[in-house]
Specification:
Elements (H helix, E strand, L loop, with lengths): L2 H20 L4 H11 L16 H24 L3
Helix pairs in contact: 1-2, 2-3
Length: 80
């Protein structure tokens, strides 16, 4: 896939996840959508992890942390 198309998919899945979390309060589905967004690397997918700039690594790690936090929050709310 080409990088510009990946950027649209990445932003689209991130926006869908945020919409599901904020509007519908469906945190598990939101975590799933945001997690799928990570599969579509918005940066150069041919570049190895060690060669990426620090800010790109920070964006992706922060996104992963958001997915994990949303999933944990959803699991905590459904714990009975």
């Amino acid at each position: 896939m080409k990088t510009p198309f990946n950027k649209f998919l990445y932003v689209g899945f991130l926006a869908l996840g945020l919409y599901q979390a904020l509007q519908h309060k469906d945190y598990i589905q939101a975590a799933s959508s945001m997690g799928i967004g990570l599969a579509f690397d918005p940066f150069n997918p041919d570049q190895k992890w060690n060669n990426r700039p620090t800010w790109q690594k920070a964006v992706l790690i922060t996104h992963l942390a958001l997915v994990a936090a949303t999933f944990g929050f959803g699991m905590g709310l459904n714990d009975k």
